[in-house]
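Researcher: Let's continue the batch. This sequence belongs to histidine kinase, and it's 421 residues. Same format as the previous ones, please.
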Amino acid sequence: MSCAYSESVRADRTLLHDTGLAVLLAAGSLVFYLLFDQAAWEAQGQLAQVHAPDLLGSLLVALSAAPVAVRRRWPLAALSVCVAIDTLIDALGYSVGRIGIASLVLLYSVAARRGLAMSMAGLLVTLLAYLAGSLAGSATLSVPGHVLVVFVFTAAWGLGRTIRLRRAYLDELRDRADRLERAKEADTRAARAEERSRIARELHDVIAHHVSVMTVQAAAARKVLRSDADLAGEALTAVEDTGRKAMAEMRAMVSVLRAGSPAELGPQPGMSALPALVEQMREAGLPTRLDVGGEPPQLPAGIDLAAYRLVQEALTNSLRHAGPGASAVVGVRYPPEGLPGALPGALPGGLPGGLPGGLPGGLEVSVRDDGRGPMGPVKQTGHGLAGIRERVALYGGILNIGPLPGGGFEVRATFPLKDGR
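Model: Same format as before. Here are the structure tokens for histidine kinase:
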């Protein structure tokens, strides 16, 4: 509604301005008519066709400027009415070779506000009207005079076309700038959404892992609280330590959102932190073994973090769902240095060797447990496994998740590394 009101106000203001211009042109034309045409009549009064300025002539001269008031809304119609009145004035002998200023303004308006075809039609109408008025009028001009008149009309038309093309060019530049700005905003929103998703995934991994460990340790402390107070105290101490670690990691990640925070430069966990993670799972009650094959290369930071989070999430799921008495094996196979081909052999702990699908040398990580396996109610639609899939797919890896034939559950992923590095 406000936009429509603004357009209405702008249209009213434009009509007021054009009406004022029409009144000004009418007054100027009358002064020119009464002074110049009076002198011309006195000099050429012997010609019967030349009329002295009178009321009819003054009225026609004033009316010829009236269409200027609607030059923006109906420019071609206003020009046609104006040149028709000018032709009538010349035919009745009230003007001696006069060029109407109003017709020049209207011809400019047609060229500046309408397309090429309509502006050409306006120029043609103006020239034909001038030709008709010259043939029917009493005064005659020399050939250079007619050429000058045609040149003036053409110049007014050319000026209008130039202004229109310039406006169209500026409008195109503004439109292009608006499109670029919208595209930039869309890219910014997409980047923010991606960053929020990444942070949410990191927070989920950290919270899910540590809370699961704390829950298991707290349950163990509750069971042995009366029978073995020392053991219960150790479990509660482990809960406290795990909680502090969780708070520290979450504080580090959240502080990344604050501009200029020193935590932005803090290192993220990687494969080098696997021994501490395995030890933490042992303390939580899940016997876990770490088997590593090959020499650890300098892994890209993204793959290093993704592989660590995969192991963390998989062990968290094993802790939750494998059941009592279950154990887990974390297998890591680094590519042999200098061998960019498929990895041969088998990983320690029974992990199959080689990269599936003939991938070049890369990092292979697996977590398997011997718990309830297919009988366990493991959901593969949760945020944790979905986050694992996203991480592996982001780096072009291959992920296999599912129960093992003999019981248990396995999460296995391969991350391709360029030239085995």
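Researcher: Any comment?
Model: The two ends are 63 Å apart (CA to CA).
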